[in-house]
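re: ur question from yesterday

yeah so i grabbed the chain u mentioned. its 328 aa long if i counted rite. heres the sequnce exactly as i have it in my notes:
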Amino acid sequence: MTEALDELARLAGRYRAFAADEAHGVSPHYDRLTQEIAESAAVLRFLLDLPAPRRQPNLLLGAATLIAGRPPDIASLTGMIANRANELRATMLQRTTQTNEPARCAVLLPLLAALPQPLALVEVGASAGLCLLPDRYGYDWGEKRIAPGDPAAPMFRCAVTGSAPLPTALPRVVWRAGLDLNPLDVASDEDTAWLEALIWPEQEERRRNLRAALAVARRDPPRVVRGDLLHDLAPLMAEAPAEATLVVFHTAVLAYVSPPEARRRFVETVRASRAVWISNEAPRVFPDIAARTSQPAPHWRFLLSVDGEPKAWTGPHGQSLEWFASGD
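ran it thru and got these structure tokens back, copy pasting raw so excuse formatting
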């Protein structure tokens, strides 16, 4: 009994931490809701019946949104658990939090454009592959803009501080492929509905950009291969044309790879290849890289690095780029 109560308390603490650290100031709806979940015995008991990796807040919120067709409040969520628990459980067991945020291309583009052209891209944890299309979007960094070739393509806004090497032209990509344990299909209504369900309630610009990026992707879908980054990355890299600069990149993915030894093996695979390695992850994912910065990590930022060298703090949805001064 004591062990079960302790597990309930830990789970409640996880949802309170999500409210305070992730949702607060970003999504008032999810801030309030996850605090209420932390006080709801019915919701917590439902979550405890799931495997531990499936109890995460974003997965619960996305699954409930998908089923209801709108973000839940605490009353509708407890009602869903009372009346549709099997459907909610099945969705949370089937799906994973594969948020595919194409606006992250705004922080990747300065690095991609600075490399010898043309490029061959491999994205690890690609989801539906929307970040494999950086050359098909538009960008607005304030002082510099690049219009998309397709006027219907999204224009991603990104606030820049520091002397970031903002490009004036899009990179030239001649080959691209993604790797994911469970690839999503841009032509599937079910898969794209799941991507929309993962967007938080107040983030309408992200929703519009996602829909526009999906429309771009459907006209020429990126190739995303089902596979594991520890076993299937090297064969995929070997397919890239030799005349192109090979780039392996990932964003908000490696936190889901555990233990840390597995991350180390992934890095060794990339560094042993001819690829340029671009990482855009929470600082805790690669603490050795974060330790090379002279600035403490701002709240809820990712660390952008190239071949293990830190370059900038970035907003998790590509909304900001805080370039380090030389020597940081």
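noticed a couple things. The chain is about 40% helix and 15% strand. also The chain has two domains: 2-94, 102-323.
anyway ttyl
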